[in-house]
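Lecture 7 notes: from sequence to structure.
We start with the chain below.
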Amino acid sequence: MGRLAPSQVRDTEVAGERIIAKLTNASGNGAPIGGLKVVTEHGWFAARPSGTEEVYKFYAESMKGEGQLRQLQVEGRALIARALKVAGEAGGNSVAP
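Predicted structure tokens for the same chain:
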């Protein structure tokens, strides 16, 4: 999960909005975030490995309300699962969703 690359995300939209950024580094200082953040116009989600378990932690925020937040959570987790599959096919390490 920590090695997941933006190029492994093949989706172009999530929660009904176009993906405008796929980040592995913080936009402010360029520091690695240890996972992947996907940004749309009105929301975002991020996934990063847990430091103590073989799972990942998932964070999401919506500027449009609870309905979009739930959609980001469901579709974002599915997007991460697909990207992890792509990473696995490329010989990368994956973490159980």
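Points to note: The two ends are 10 Å apart (CA to CA). The CA atoms of residues 81 and 91 lie 15 Å apart.
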